[in-house]
What we know:
This protein has 16 helices and 19 strands. By secondary structure, it is α/β, with parallel strands linked by helices. The mean pLDDT is 93.
Amino acid sequence: MDFDLSTKYDMRVPRYTSYPTAPHFSDAVGPDTYRGWLGEMEAGTGLSLYSHIPFCDSMCWFCGCYTKIVKRYEPVRDYLDVLLDEIDLVADALPGRFTAHHMHWGGGSPTMLKGSDWMGIIERMRARFDVAPSAEIALELDPRTTTEGYVKAMAAAGVNRASIGVQDFDIEVQQAINRIQPFDVTERVVNWLRRHGIDHVNMDLMYGLPHQTTERVRREVELALILKPARVALFGYAHVPWMKSHQKMIDEASLPGTEDRFEQFLEASRMLAEAGYVAVGLDHFALPTDEMAIALKEGRLRRNFQGYTSDRAPVLLGFGASSIGNLPQGYVQNVLPLRDYSRAIGEKRLATGKGLELSAEDRLRSDVIERIMCELTVDLEAVAAHHGTTAGHFAADLEKIASLTEDGLCTLEGGRISVSEAGRPFVRLVAAAFDTYLTKGPGRHSKAV
């Protein structure tokens, strides 16, 4: 690998968990628009349901999520009551009952809920939606605040996949990001999950954190492999203190440089590949028997606001403050802060604060970008034909990848773009060539690698 390329392409571009991306949402889409979109849902449309739990008991300084620090349970309990009311409001706006094929709880930290809350949440979901027998019911888990009783309650409620935040096991790195989590704490929770039948365990690791070195990242991966996760998400730390003020607590002088960061990613990727994991898109790795690896092999891997997914549901309904939904007509995002969200639901109004209605051009480019991000290849002629146009539609966009092809990061042959293995870390730059919104706003994004 030519490390000079990491410096040459040290740019900031979106992560493309959607297209167009969230910075381009506006208040032109509000509660009435969302209600209309819900009412237009065709019978038999499959659903994915996401619920945001925006609470933690301490702030991790690397965090890029919307969350609120609380030391008492009462605000969490009050929020849960509002969330349940929102589920009813959204379900009432639908023209019938629909089937959920995927349910996911993120945060913040869903472990701020009590174990007894889980049965109530699942019961409300099942009361308002049909849940497919094969549905994946997943949540994000903070091992520092998890008990075995909590895991038992999750399992009893039907949870069958858990994503564990690790980041790094090194104590100096943990201190620098304000997240102390020894290996044995994580190991204990993984053992509890498997003991109670939650066998699908994902793990989040990071590179590019303060005080990380390639050797420390190597040790991070070695320890993670001991726990045999089904999936590993290898995220690069996105230092965006202009968006997340708590990141100002991180000493920028302690952050790895561009080449060091790149080397960390490559070493971690190499180790996971040698351990038998399949590389999925930009930054995920899965065991060959995991549904994500199977979806990649079968050409049905998707990308949404939770990252890469095997979920094929065409509609994502988001619940909770700041949550984002995706419908055929476009995107919707709930308001924040919490008081505005609670007020809207308390007044029996949908909590939509902004969104974006998709144009035909948006849908075309979304398909191209998703295929590049998921499969590292796209047949422009085939995608264009599906949308009633030709590959010539992208003539100006192809000029933007000329330097990438010259550097061997991707190829263009007969209308097909393919990202090389050397270009995998730069796949967001290939996708960005088809993003017509990059010059339409002041959005500031994370580094491409």
